[in-house]
Amino acid sequence: MGEFDLIRRHFQHALQPAGVALGNGDDAALLAPAPGCHLAVSTDMLVEGRHFLPTVDPRALGHKALAVNLSDLAAMGARPLAWTLALALPRADDAWLAALAAGLLALADAHGCALVGGDTTAGPLNLCLTVMGEVPAGQALRRDAARPGDDVYVSGQLGDARLALEVFRGRCEVPAATFARARRRMEWPQPRVALGLALRGVARACADVSDGLLGDLGHILRASGVGARIDAETLMQSAAVSDDVRALPKPLALTCVLAGGDDYELVFSAPAAAREAVQAAAQAAGVAVTRIGAIEEPAAGAAGTARLVDAQGRPYRVPDGAHLAGFDHFA
């Protein structure tokens, strides 16, 4: 099977939503965002051995490869429009490619996001996707918009994907049913696109939780020049943490929730006066959100730092064995 046969067989996407004037099959796609909208663009790469195991189900890999990119659009409050795929393959395995494409295109269809081009080549397994979305000018949920007094929220639940990774690494053992649930969260993340859209005009700043809650919240804090207070005890007992994660030894549970990556939930700030509007947005999107702290003026020289407190507002004592640094590709 040659390169162009491979593309025609597996990646010829019939979807062509409004905003895509010309899809794949030419030298370049032609996009036409709605009048008054900005084009939001993001790229993510998934590399075998770094981001996924060689044994992963190819359909799950396809789903996740697009999901992590759509999560970036969700964090900006952008509506998905189109995407491209650059794919390096050690060999052209038709059955494997069919499953990969099925995972990719099912999620693309669910979000009305058209595959409009890309490239294929021989090489170590690597998927590099670029997504494009549209957001009305002035309504993007930017990282630099948090203000002191804002509440801090997270969507969904945190830590289960990291739990699965710890099991894969042989660092902990859990019942088979617990591992199955955690593995599904790691391999089949659900991008919070509907929530991102519903939060436009309600939230101020937003990021997706891809590298760990504290690390990704830190991006917001640094961009906005502020600090934050996170109630660690309340967070760990809240609906933002599953029973499976809560049942882990405390140091590991904290590591999973505060520093575990691959959750692809949203962390965002919103004015305290918008609490009802935030809950209404969450209900409209069909995903729970939990208030976990507040944005505050930073201590001298400490902009970008989130401090952990207990239920009484005192400094939270992190137990020995908890590792709270976020994921870094080069660390």
TrEMBL record:
Coiled coil: none annotated. GO terms for biological process: thiamine biosynthetic process; thiamine diphosphate biosynthetic process. It is an enzyme of class 2 (transferase). Mg(2+) 1 binds at residues 43-44, 119. InterPro entries: PurM-like_C_dom (IPR010918), PurM-like_C_sf (IPR036676), PurM-like_N (IPR016188), PurM-like_N_sf (IPR036921), ThiL-like (IPR006283). ATP binds at residues 118-119, 143, 210. It catalyses: thiamine phosphate + ATP = thiamine diphosphate + ADP. Mg(2+) 2 binds at residues 44, 72. Mg(2+) 5 binds at residue 211. Signal peptide: none annotated. One of its GO terms (molecular function) is magnesium ion binding. Pfam families: AIRS, AIRS_C. Keywords: ATP-binding, Kinase, Magnesium, Metal-binding, Nucleotide-binding, Thiamine biosynthesis, Transferase. Mg(2+) 4 binds at residues 27, 42, 72. The keyword ATP-binding applies. PANTHER family: THIAMINE-MONOPHOSPHATE KINASE. Belongs to the thiamine-monophosphate kinase family. Reaction mechanism of ThiL seems to utilize a direct, inline transfer of the gamma-phosphate of ATP to TMP rather than a phosphorylated enzyme intermediate. NCBIfam families: thiL (TIGR01379). Catalyzes the ATP-dependent phosphorylation of thiamine-monophosphate (TMP) to form thiamine-pyrophosphate (TPP), the active form of vitamin B1. This is Thiamine-monophosphate kinase.
